[in-house]
Amino acid sequence: MELNLNLVFQLPVKPKRVMQLLTDTVLIRKWSGGEAKLELEPNGAFEMFDGWVTGKVIKVSENELSYTWKTTDWDDNAKDSIVSYKLTPFDGGTKVQVSHSGFPNEDEMKAHEAGWSDYFFDPLEDYIMVFDRP
């Protein structure tokens, strides 16, 4: 059985700004509260949440981003999962479609389903509301 999540979030800023917030390491550190690294080229290093998750960039374009994702909690033999974002303009802001595929088990998939809101998009939206004032 494939263990995949497909989630949709809405942010009150335009896609270009959302992409900056997803790819600029200085901004990622500000809204996530942890160390981050993102080298914007295929096979570039990706790291977030003080090294809790690491991976490699797969694709970067104007409205799409994808990278591999593996947490330090996962077994060493677990394969990397893949996170993909697709940004589309929506109602003056941006609809962000997140596909996260290839979880090592159902517990991790369920934990990440809540985690995408609690640790990623909620802090990102809080940052936008304070610093971008839509």
- Summed up, the domain count is 1
Taking the sheet with the most strands, its summary is:
7 strands, antiparallel
Q: What is the element string, with H for helices and E for strands?
A: EHHEEEEEEH
Biggest sheet strand line-up: 1-7-6-5-4-3-2
- Strand count: 7
Q: What is the structural class?
A: alpha+beta
Percentage of residues in strands: 35-45%
Radius of gyration: 14 Å
Tally of DSSP helical segments: 3
What is the percent of helical residues? Answer: 25-40%
**CATH T-level topology:** Alpha-D-Glucose-1,6-Bisphosphate, Chain A, domain 4
> Would you identify the CATH architecture?
2-Layer Sandwich
Q: Overview of this structure, please?
A:
The longest helix is centred in the last third of the chain and has 26 residues, at 106-131. The mean pLDDT is 96. The protein contains 3 helices and 7 strands, in the order E-H-H-E-E-E-E-E-E-H. It has 134 residues and is of the alpha+beta class. A hairpin with a 3-residue loop joins strand 4 (53-60) and strand 5 (64-71). Helix 1 crosses helix 2 (25-32). A 7-stranded antiparallel beta sheet has the order 1-7-6-5-4-3-2, with helices on one face. The protein has one domain (4-131): Alpha-D-Glucose-1,6-Bisphosphate, Chain A, domain 4.
Identify the notable features of this structure and list them briefly.
134 residues, alpha+beta, Alpha-D-Glucose-1,6-Bisphosphate, Chain A, domain 4, 7-stranded antiparallel beta sheet, 3 helices, globular
Task: Indicate the topology.
Blueprint: E1 4-11, H1 15-23, H2 25-32, E2 37-38, E3 45-48, E4 53-60, E5 64-71, E6 81-90, E7 93-101, H3 106-131
Antiparallel strand pairs: 1-7, 2-3, 3-4, 4-5, 5-6, 6-7
Helix pairs in contact: 1-2
